[in-house]
């Protein structure tokens, strides 16, 4: 875990010192659809990365790159963090790596195949994706606000 943290920190430092964070922020601020374009792109990237890497790497590499852009767009950072957390949880259930699926396979009887687990998790992925979409579209249902502020919290 410490090796991952050190590597992520080194990557972030090199990325920042070379000006990559400013270039990426500038590019993301010019996306079509402004905040909605940024949110859709960032959620898709996090979901795809969640298929292959653990949440620690995403938290230490991707989130520090996305957070300044979200702040610059005036997004509610608590809402943005909840979107990221829900997105990561959804990606933990998706193949090819699906970390939660491997944990389940480790405690299930030998008669249960990995393909059975992959098929059985489909409704749960659908439910989590539905909640993520509802949270994305209707943050006020969850006591949140899409723009800066904490929506009653």
How many domains would you count in the coordinates?
Answer: 1
The helix content, as a percent range, equals over 70%
The span between the termini is: 33 Å
Rounded mean pLDDT is 83
Structural class: mainly alpha
- Work out the radius of gyration: 17 Å
Strand content: under 5%
The largest β sheet comes out as: none
Helical segment tally?
A: 8
Count of beta strands? 0
Shape: globular
Question: SSE string, helix = H, strand = E?
Answer: HHHHHHHH
| Weakly predicted, low-confidence segments | none
Structure description:
This protein is globular. The longest helix has 19 residues, at 34-52. The two termini are 33 Å apart. It has one domain. The protein is built from eight helices and no strands. It has helices at residues 2-17, 20-29, 34-52, 55-72, 77-91, 99-107, 114-120, 122-137. The mean pLDDT is 83. It has 153 residues and is an all-alpha fold.
Give the structure's gist in a few sentences.
Helix content is 72%, strand content 0%. The chain is an all-alpha fold and 153 residues long. The longest helix is centred in the first third of the chain and has 19 residues, at 34-52.
Index terms:
single chain, mainly alpha, 8 helices, globular
Structural topology:
Blueprint: H1 2-17, H2 20-29, H3 34-52, H4 55-72, H5 77-91, H6 99-107, H7 114-120, H8 122-137
């Amino acid at each position: 875990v410490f090796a991952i943290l050190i590597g992520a920190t080194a990557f972030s430092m090199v990325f920042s010192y070379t000006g990559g964070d400013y270039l990426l922020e500038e590019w993301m601020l010019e996306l079509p659809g402004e905040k909605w374009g940024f949110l859709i792109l960032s959620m898709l990237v996090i979901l795809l990365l969640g298929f292959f890497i653990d949440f620690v790497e995403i938290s230490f590499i991707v989130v520090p790159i996305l957070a300044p852009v979200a702040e610059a767009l005036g997004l509610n950072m608590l809402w943005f963090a909840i979107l990221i957390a829900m997105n990561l949880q959804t990606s933990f259930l998706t193949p090819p790596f699906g970390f939660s699926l491997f944990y389940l396979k480790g405690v299930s009887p030998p008669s249960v195949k990995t393909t059975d687990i992959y098929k059985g998790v489909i409704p749960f992925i659908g439910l989590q994706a539905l909640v993520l979409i509802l949270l994305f579209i209707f943050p006020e249902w969850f006591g949140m606000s899409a723009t800066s502020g904490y929506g009653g919290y």
